[in-house]
């Protein structure tokens, strides 16, 4: 018998265990679920133990499967990292993803600055709300909106989470929005991904959550669309100040009650896998992003609230 297990089986085993699904592993590896099952059976036969308990709809790792994964996982990651580093040593590309709202409202207006400074870099940009999969998607670096806690990632805070209130200048004047309490007469545009209104109204307007639910509101599940609705006089939006920076500077939005800004437990973090050496072009892009972020002066004095992040 060979000293090595069937090597083609190892990626199938790792993906199936991580995703707890042969079907999802097959989708990630671009093969059929049957092929994943076959590779894992080969590995089980070679090892002489069962690695998964199979049910009709799901698979569960056995104790032997979990122990085996813990031993071979670091080695598989080392193989992946060493191969990628060698293959991409002369690569001048940067593969980068971020949340759609961050892409539309903050990154897009700045992207040309980086390309002018580094014209030989091939920048590949994407947007997603999902947790970035660096290995599967071939990503170098990402911006992620979360609490910064992930043992697998190096995470550097770009912007702390804040919630401030905005509307179109004409909407403010039409409704006479002079104090936070005046918002009972407004239409509140609610970003369903970020439930900040009840905390903001309770903290600054003295409106209890059960009362705030009675205020007229519109629910939208896309942050950029929420901000556009406010620009077009549909109501008052609550958003992170960095996403409204350009619209405020152009006079499309006004910041209502700028002394009243909440700190929320999430933020925009620049992330990449731990222990992965970044190529020169990626380091240049990372440093440029950090420099751009540092130039936006935090002019607010936000009040923190204790609440759980989403």
UniProtKB/TrEMBL annotation:
GO terms for molecular function: DNA-binding transcription factor activity; sequence-specific DNA binding. GO terms for biological process: DNA-templated transcription. Residues 5-62 form the HTH lysR-type domain. It comes from the Bacteria. InterPro entries: LysR-type_TF_proteobact-type (IPR058163), LysR_HTH_N (IPR000847), LysR_subst-bd (IPR005119), WH-like_DNA-bd_sf (IPR036388), WH_DNA-bd_sf (IPR036390). Keywords: DNA-binding, Transcription, Transcription regulation. Pfam families: HTH_1, LysR_substrate. Coiled coil: none annotated. Belongs to the LysR transcriptional regulatory family. This is LysR family transcriptional regulator.
């Amino acid at each position: 018998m060979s000293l090595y297990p069937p090597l083609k089986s190892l990626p199938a085993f790792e993906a199936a265990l991580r995703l707890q699904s042969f079907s999802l592993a097959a989708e990630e590896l671009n093969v059929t679920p049957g092929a994943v099952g076959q590779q894992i059976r080969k590995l089980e036969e070679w090892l002489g133990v069962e690695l998964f308990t199979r049910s009709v709809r799901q698979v569960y790792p056995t104790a032997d499967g979990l122990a085996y994964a813990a031993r071979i996982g670091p080695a598989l990651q080392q193989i992946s990292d060493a191969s990628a580093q060698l293959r991409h040593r002369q690569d001048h590309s940067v593969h980068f993803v971020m949340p759609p709202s961050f892409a539309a409202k903050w990154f897009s207006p700045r992207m040309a600055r980086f390309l002018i400074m580094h014209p030989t870099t091939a920048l590949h940009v994407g947007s997603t709300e999902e947790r970035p999969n660096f290995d599967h998607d071939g990503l170098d670096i990402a911006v992620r909106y979360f609490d910064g806690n992930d043992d697998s990632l190096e995470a550097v805070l770009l912007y702390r989470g804040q919630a401030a209130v905005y509307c179109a200048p004409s909407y403010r004047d039409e409704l006479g929005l002079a104090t936070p309490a005046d918002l009972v007469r407004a239409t509140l545009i609610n970003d369903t991904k970020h439930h900040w209104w009840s905390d903001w109204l309770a903290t600054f307007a003295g409106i209890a959550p059960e009362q705030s639910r009675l205020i007229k509101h519109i629910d939208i599940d896309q942050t950029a669309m929420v901000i556009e609705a406010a620009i077009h006089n549909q109501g008052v939006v609550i958003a992170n100040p960095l996403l409204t920076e350009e619209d405020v500077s152009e006079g499309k939005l006004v910041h209502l009650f700028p002394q009243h800004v909440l700190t929320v437990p999430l933020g925009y973090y620049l992330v990449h896998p731990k222990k992965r050496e970044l190529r020169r072009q990626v380091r240049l892009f990372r440093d440029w992003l950090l420099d751009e972020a540092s130039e936006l002066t935090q002019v607010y004095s936000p009040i923190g609230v204790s609440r759980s992040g989403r």
